[in-house]
Design brief:
Layout (H helix, E strand, L loop, with lengths): L32 E4 L2 E4 L9 H26 L1
Antiparallel strand pairs: 1-2
Length: 78
């Protein structure tokens, strides 16, 4: 499947298309763990590490950029 034909579905009770200001309220939920640098790191949001704010900030910035890209792409298709 090419990237042009891919369909992404996203569902979250807070998510509203175009409501970028609400994206900071949407958190990933993951109970899996992974090995990194010889230590076990939990991906659960309840066990935040120092520095996670920077990662979350970058993640939210990426989400905003993707939303802007989607809006521009949508406008070009009209």
């Amino acid at each position: 499947m090419s990237s042009e034909n891919e369909t992404w579905e996203f569902k979250h009770p807070i998510f509203r298309r175009g409501a970028v200001e609400q994206l900071h309220n949407i958190k990933r939920k993951c109970t899996r763990t992974q090995q990194q640098s010889g230590r076990r790191i939990s991906l659960d949001q309840d066990q935040a590490e120092p520095g996670d704010d920077a990662v979350e900030s970058m993640y939210n910035h990426i989400i905003r950029l993707e939303n802007q890209l989607w809006e521009v792409s949508k406008a070009l298709l009209i």
